[in-house]
């Protein structure tokens, strides 16, 4: 099952991310829990980690918290060495785009080949600016 995260404004989609399979998004969340929260799920990043994995929404209010969490995650992952890609398709996509990971941040991609965290930050900024939710589809 694929996970698509998107923001609508007045019934029109204004931004979205295809995060791959729900299992790919969960691999990212598991990495954050293990490496950045010391295995204590939600202790530092509750908005990201404690939300249902593949359904629902982050409300407009939650997007402000989510953005802060994601910026902290981005900074930490940028300082960490590369890890194995969680899925073969991510590794293959990075190779096809001629990208070599320089940090852990580069090892979790959306289906467009962008670092997932960076795209999530942009999505949360859009949602916050429009006072809209991020929907899980």
How would you characterize the overall build of this protein?
By secondary structure, this protein is α+β, with helices and mostly antiparallel strands. It has 5 helices and 4 strands; from the N terminus they run ββααβαααβ. It has helices at residues 22-36, 46-49, 60-78, 88-96, 116-130; strands spanning 2-9, 12-21, 57-58, 134-136. Helix 3 packs antiparallel against helix 5. It is globular, with a radius of gyration of 14 Å.
Core attributes:
single chain; 137 residues; alpha+beta; 4-stranded antiparallel beta sheet; 5 helices; 4 strands
The termini sit apart by 10 Å
Structural class, from secondary structure content?
alpha+beta
Average pLDDT confidence is 95
Q: Major beta sheet, specifics?
A: 4 strands, antiparallel
Question: What's the total helix number?
Answer: 5
When the domains are counted, the total is 1
Name the shape in a single word: globular
Helix residue percentage: 40-55%
From N to C, what is the helix and strand string? Answer: EEHHEHHHE
Order of strands across the widest beta sheet?
A: 2-1-4-3
Overall strand count: 4
* C-alpha Rg (nearest Å): 14 Å
Estimate the strand proportion: 15-25%
Low-confidence stretches: none
Quick recap:
The protein is of the alpha+beta class and 137 residues long. It contains five helices and four strands.
Provide the fold topology.
Blueprint: E1 2-9, E2 12-21, H1 22-36, H2 46-49, E3 57-58, H3 60-78, H4 88-96, H5 116-130, E4 134-136
Antiparallel strand pairs: 1-2, 1-4, 3-4
């Amino acid at each position: 099952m694929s996970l698509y995260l998107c923001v609508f404004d007045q019934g029109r989609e204004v931004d979205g991310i295809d995060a791959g399979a729900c299992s790919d998004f969960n691999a990212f969340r598991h990495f954050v829990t293990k490496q950045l929260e010391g295995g204590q799920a939600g202790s530092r990043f509750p908005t990201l980690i404690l939300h249902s994995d593949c359904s629902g929404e982050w409300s407009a209010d939650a997007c402000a918290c989510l953005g802060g969490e994601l910026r902290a995650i981005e900074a930490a992952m940028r300082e960490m060495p590369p890890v194995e890609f969680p899925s073969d398709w991510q590794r293959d996509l990075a190779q096809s785009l001629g990208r070599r990971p320089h940090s852990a941040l580069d090892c979790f991609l959306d289906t467009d080949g962008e670092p997932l965290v960076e795209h999530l930050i942009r999505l949360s900024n859009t949602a916050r600016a429009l006072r809209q939710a991020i929907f899980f589809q």
